[in-house]
Amino acid sequence: MKRRLFRLPRRTAGDIRADVDAEVRFHLEERAEALMAQGVPPDRARAQALEEFGDVDDARRYIEGLDRRTEAAERRRNYLSDLWQDIGYGVRQLRRAPAFAAVAILTLGLGIGANTAIFSLVNGVLLRPLAFPEPDRLFALYSTNHSAGRIEGGVSPLDVDDWRAEQRSFTDLGGYFYLDGLSGLDFTGAGEPQRLTTVFVTPGFFEALAFSPAAGRLPREDEMVRGGRDRVVVLTDRFWRHQFGASPAVLGTTLTLNGAPYEVLGVLPRDLRFPTEGADVYVPYSTIPDQSIPRIRPVRILRVVARVRPGVTAEAAQAEMTTIARRLAAQYPENAAWDDATVRPLRDTITGPVRRPLLVLLGAVGFVLLIACVNVAGLQLARATVRGREIAVRAALGAGRGRIVRQLLTESLVLAGAGCLVGLALAKGTVALLLRISTGQLPRASEVGLDARVLGFAAAASLITGIVFGLIPALPASATDVQGALKQGGRGTVAGRGTRLRSGLVVVEVALAMLLVAGAGLMTRSFVALLEVDPGFVPDRLVAVQFSISTVRHPPPGYANYYQEVIERVRMLPGVISAGAAKDAPFRGVGELIGFTLPGLVVPAGQDAPLAAMLNISDGYFRTIGARMLDGREFTPLDRADAPPVAVVNEAFARRWFPGQRAVGTQLTLDGSTAFEVVGVVNDIRQRAIAEPAQPTIYLDNLQNSRVKTTLVARTRGEPLAMANAMREVIWSLDREQTITTIFTFDDSMRLALGRPRLLTVLLGAFGVFGVLLGALGLYGVLAYLVSQRQREIWLLLALGAAPAAVLGLFVRYGLRLALVGMAIGLAGALAVSRFVGAVLYGVKPTDPATLAAVAAMLLAVAALATWLPARRAAAVQPLEALRAE
Amino acid sequence: MARDPMDLLQGTLDVLILRTLAWGPRHGYAVSRWIHDRTGGALAVQDAPLYKALHRLEHDGCVDAEWGVSDNNRRARYYRLTARGRQRLKVEESAWRRYAAAVFQVLEPA
Hints:
The complex is a heterodimer of chains A (about 900) and B (about 110). Chain A is of the alpha+beta class and about 900 residues long.
């Protein structure tokens, strides 16, 4: 198709009507005149012309409509061809400036890539709906004891039954019992004995989640209660594939679990990973015998999931649950203090702990993109100055202001598009890397990936980026005074305005960089503080083998012999320095809560006894993990079941309950019955998390107060993991059917415990470095530009005898002023967001003056260097030479 | 709307217009006269359908229109064949010839 060199101005609807009128009139007049020339009288001639024409009005209407459509199509074609022209032009321009293009695309690529990577984490973990039907209707329910500060407490199986029977807000609710490393069943009769990670569920659990099985069926209500045929098991997809090769033949067969036959009913869908990704099987909670976990109200060990009825608000559900809990508290004395319930969106309970860190990261990485944006805008601005003449020529040739802005904008979008592609490639690699280094730190990690939403985010980020850094330099450039620019021989007149704008950009960049390094500095300080934490034990060369002792094969009192025998034999292994055991190793469980009373401590009537953490350990455990006894002794093999009951308390307990007195020698009454004599005080051992100070804790000897979950710990002479095999052999020599839950070293535990802060530190640090580099680059750029603009003045000054140092000082002062203004703004910003950031910090305030001063000094030093380098070049030139060259 | 004779004539009219414009750009009135003269008035072509066809061909990109000045110094809308129009003419012309030949074969006594 022909392309017009100069397009006709576009026709409006009125223009079209006038054109059609004119065309028809022309025709009629021509025809009439021709007829008149043949001698027809004028009246007859006009009438005949009209008659020959046919329906004039109809034709006019038809043609007008058609022309309007033609015009619109034409306009679209023009727009597209302009766009293609602009893109082609932009690509050519960029190819002409490869260094600029490379720097800009790389900067944007890094910015967009980092953002896309972090966003894909946020998307997978926080934004993607849970893999259940209508996940927004799912809530977690908790028993609440306001007087003890337990808001999100577990729920007893009896309370779950009552809740389920009384509530009207939910279509269904159900409880589940799962503890990492504790809730398991021994699977025998099919090769080596295995410990299966098990979720024990009550009726209503599957119904509340509302999914269908991938194969077979889910247990019926009557198969999940006491007295029913509750020896049934549902397999996870993972276990089904792994163990049975996804064979449907396994349905209806029986598995031997803890020595009893369980019928395989069905298989769960692959994307059901609740409450854990690691589960093997789901079994009715009713199968847990009373001697293992008594079915009484004070045993609040279930988590509860519920699905609200359509139209019921969270507030209404909360109100009903409060009413029910209050009624149960009035009815059952055991529930007296647990007189409330808490309703929370299920999503919050899954992603709660990582929400804040992820949002902090997303914010930081957003600042990185902003800096990249501002930086490229600065580069564009510098180029706009150089291109002032080119733009002026285009303006002189009749390109409108809008057209020039559009062209510059298109160029920016071409850059942003290229940056987006680079960014996506980077993001793909980065996400894989992030997932690898955040193993075990992120819930729902398997749902992280580059999906449509992430791609959309990257595209949107690129588009907005392109518009932002395209518009900033485009506006002044398009306003170029044409005559001035042409007259000045290529020196664009945007200089004055451009310098001010560029200085403004630099201030913004430095401010953002300040924000980022402040975050990075604080996170680093926080991480160092974590590293310096004394966990209360020495993790080197400690290996742990975790297992659960079967009360079927080792009923008391044989249980104690088996337990003690395992520890004694491990101690005799060559290569083992010492060995002991605890129910929960540090960072792998927090023991239990127990009520206690002390002599002289009066508990007011109607109130519960004070609570402390309780952990069952063996003799020699403290010595093995390197904990120190501050007073008294630790347990010895003599503290047997038939010996007087003894207890060790930690420093936090002694400080809290025996301030200024000796704890050793006093009597603790636990659970209102047995009295234990305190025989020692041990230093605080961090149990829940590295960042959490130890709770007041009571340690009991496992021979006097037994638990089946056992973590056997040994300090080794050599490589700790190498000893794990020997330890396992020892266990199997005593009980061939003993399953092993897990094996780990304490160093692993420390690494895991530090994993999330380390990840945050590394990422924020990387963002900070990136921000500072870009900020310095921007500062360098504006100074170098300024120097080149003022070169003649400088030469004159130098030629007139000004000291080079004074000239240098002039520029450095200017650069540093920009940096200082930026830093002040950045600091204000850092203080403004400090409350939000504070939540992810440990051991350092978000307003920590030392850290902020240190990063400010660092940034100032970088800024000084970035200004000094171009300024020095200006002052170093031999003025005469330079003038001659000019 | 009045009865539209164009449906009957559409294909014929288009090819006649294209053929006319193949000789060079001309305005609607000239097209109308040319067809009238060439056929000796045998085809009763009304002008309204003719203009409709011209604008439709413009919409389809077969002709381009531009205002110009007529022989007697009046503003007139001139139509010119585009490359696409030329292509369309070729296709339709040969189709018409084949059609006509087929009809003739039937009508000619064997």
